[in-house]
């Protein structure tokens, strides 16, 4: 059994640690407008008014930030103009990153439906489960009687059937950078009438990123890799790559795009010095080709919270960049005594947070064999195109073996929202 350094992710990171923005936008920012004199105004930071406080009759008044008036119109990633006449009081999310964001904004009391992969959030299991075997169940979503449905990128196929049922659905573009996540957070805040909370959340996230970058500014950047299983890895133009960069590592798969399937030979040639894993035992280091890499021979890995690493949302960025940057600093202190008393390990343990595992690997294809979550919302999904010829492996959708691996990868990517 491997020893580990037990870095700070065992406890939620305090807000004092945080900062900075990295990456570029994946696409045009959604067009948003309001009817009336506040049209086009940008959300402003400030104290958020209490949301959901009951009045004397026991009914929660519909409160919104001053910058978040209604009616409100927004154009989503499908080009559809979404109109909200008043603040939505019943919100359903069909992928977990939007749910995580709503919890962060303090709007969880208005959430009536979530995917099963959001159950790690406090109280989420009390909401309706809208997951189907693959994607979302239209019937279950309709049964939640939502005023607004938030549909992340990987749920594109679910959007039109939901609209055909007369539901108001906002569909997001893929988030491939921290900046994209900040823009999505701002958009969700605007849609639900929580602009101030969104601004404060983004400020906390930006501070976390800045702190992570400063923490690792004077140390060597290890060559790192995040394997998803079956040879699939997180590569360039993904939010996970942005987290890896902000956390002080160089992604050895950065020459590839999205989530390619790499051959054993390519992985050996890339020779990562550090593996990001979501399995506390880091069992992947015992299997080839990873066992023969520098990371494998030196038992060098960092355990990341599976939900935070794989879901493009603000708390994910805060926790993941902090955990990873702390791990990088610890790894530079070669031979330093670990916090658990061991002295011979190069591993770091960033997990053990109470939210780290949702425990279910079934459902809408959003789960992986190793329990890591890849939330389909802002995820870059495998698209069936051929991989770069240098990978020496087929991409999803070609051949029986590749098809089986594709199901695994699809499950991984579907949870990433």
Structure commentary:
With 417 residues, this protein is of the alpha/beta class. The strands form 4 sheets. A 5-stranded parallel beta sheet has the order 6-5-4-7-8, with helices on both faces. It has a 5-stranded parallel beta sheet with strand order 12-9-13-14-15. A 3-stranded antiparallel beta sheet has the order 1-2-3, with no helix packed on it. It has 11 helices and 15 strands. The relative contact order is 0.17. The protein folds into 2 domains: 205 residues, Nitrogenase molybdenum iron protein domain (Rossmann fold), CATH 3.40.50.1980; 165 residues, Nitrogenase molybdenum iron protein domain (Rossmann fold).
Set down the secondary structure blueprint.
Blueprint: E1 31-34, E2 72-75, E3 81-84, E4 91-93, H1 96-104, E5 111-114, E6 128-129, H2 138-143, E7 148-151, H3 156-164, E8 169-171, H4 178-192, H5 195-215, E9 223-225, E10 227-229, E11 232-233, H6 239-246, E12 250-251, H7 264-270, E13 274-277, H8 294-297, E14 301-303, H9 306-310, H10 314-332, E15 348-349, H11 400-414
Parallel strand pairs: 4-5, 4-7, 5-6, 7-8, 9-12, 9-13, 13-14, 14-15
Antiparallel strand pairs: 1-2, 2-3, 10-11
């Amino acid at each position: 059994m491997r020893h580990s350094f037990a870095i700070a992710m065992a406890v939620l990171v305090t807000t004092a640690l945080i900062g900075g923005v990295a990456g570029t936008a994946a696409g045009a920012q959604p067009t948003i407008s309001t009817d009336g004199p506040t049209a086009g105004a940008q959300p402003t930071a400030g104290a958020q008014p209490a949301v959901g406080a009951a009045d004397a009759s026991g009914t929660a008044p519909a409160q919104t930030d001053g910058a978040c008036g209604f009616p409100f119109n927004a154009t989503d990633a499908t080009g559809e103009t979404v109109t909200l006449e008043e603040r939505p009081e019943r919100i359903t999310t069909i992928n977990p990153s939007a749910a995580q964001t709503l919890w962060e904004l303090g709007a969880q009391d208005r959430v009536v439906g979530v995917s099963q992969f959001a159950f790690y959030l406090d109280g989420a299991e009390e909401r309706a489960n809208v997951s189907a075997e693959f994607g979302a169940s239209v019937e279950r979503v309709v049964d939640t009687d939502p005023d607004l449905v938030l549909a992340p990128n990987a749920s594109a196929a679910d959007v039109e059937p939901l609209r055909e049922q007369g539901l108001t659905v906002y569909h997001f573009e893929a988030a491939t950078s921290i900046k994209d996540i900040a823009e999505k957070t701002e958009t969700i805040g605007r849609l639900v009438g929580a602009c101030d909370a969104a601004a404060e959340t983004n400020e906390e996230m930006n501070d976390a990123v800045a702190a992570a970058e400063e923490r690792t500014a004077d140390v060597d950047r290890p060559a790192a890799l995040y394997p998803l299983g079956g040879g699939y890895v997180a590569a360039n133009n993904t939010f996970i790559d942005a987290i890896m960069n902000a956390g002080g590592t160089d992604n050895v798969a950065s020459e590839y795009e999205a989530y390619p399937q790499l051959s054993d030979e390519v992985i050996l040639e890339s020779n990562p010095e550090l593996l990001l894993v979501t399995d506390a035992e880091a069992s992947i280091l015992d299997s080839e080709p990873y066992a023969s890499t520098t990371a494998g021979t030196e038992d060098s890995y960092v355990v990341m919270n599976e939900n935070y690493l794989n879901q493009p949302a603000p708390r994910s960025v805060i926790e993941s960049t902090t955990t990873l940057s702390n791990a990088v600093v610890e790894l530079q202190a070669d031979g330093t005594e670990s916090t658990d008393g061991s002295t011979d390990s190069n591993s770091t343990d960033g997990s053990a947070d109470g939210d780290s595992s949702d425990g279910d690997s079934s459902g809408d294809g959003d789960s992986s064999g190793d329990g890591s979550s890849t939330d389909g919302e802002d995820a870059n999904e495998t698209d069936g195109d051929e991989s770069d010829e240098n990978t020496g492996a087929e991409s999803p959708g070609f051949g029986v073996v590749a098809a089986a691996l594709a199901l695994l990868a699809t499950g991984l990517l579907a949870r990433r929202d």
